[in-house]
Specification:
Blueprint lengths: L1 H4 L5 H14 L3 H14 L9 H12 L7 H17 L2 H18 L3 H17 L8
Helix pairs in contact: 2-3, 2-4, 3-4, 4-5, 4-6, 5-6, 6-7
Length: about 130
């Protein structure tokens, strides 16, 4: 639709999700290009509310194919914090979960990781979310 009718505020989500889908077809270069376009569209002020869902697709999936997991950590944590601020609780915790899993996989300090897992677990309960860390 974006190609036929032009860019709208939701185009960043469509591009991010399409980039994730391209990974299933092993098109890493095409996936990377769509992910980069999705991130560019987030610079539009009206698209900022979609940051948590775009970051979840791009930084928990697409960029992991060609960047070290550690490079996505700050962006995933930003997606978590931004999601809490704007009320996108679902994608806030998708980003938090991805960040915590990445930190475990690349060997972050376990005592600090445990503290953040506990913080997220408590916040998930506060927001009525099911925790996979329980």
């Amino acid at each position: 639709l974006t190609l036929q009718h032009g860019i709208c505020n939701e185009s960043c989500i469509a591009l991010a999700n399409s980039s994730y889908l391209l990974l299933q077809f092993k098109d890493v270069a095409g996936s990377k290009r769509l992910a980069e376009l999705a991130l560019l569209l987030l610079k539009k002020p009206q698209a900022k509310k979609y940051l948590p869902s775009v970051y979840a697709a791009v930084y928990s999936g697409v960029f992991c194919w060609y960047n070290h997991l550690k490079q996505s950590e700050k962006w995933l944590w930003q997606g978590y914090q931004e999601g809490l601020l704007i009320g996108d609780i679902e994608f806030a915790f998708v980003n938090a979960t991805a960040s915590l899993q990445n930190r475990f996989l690349y060997g972050a300090q376990l005592t600090l990781l445990e503290q953040d897992i506990e913080l997220c677990r408590k916040r998930m309960i506060e927001y009525g979310q099911a925790s996979q860390f329980a």
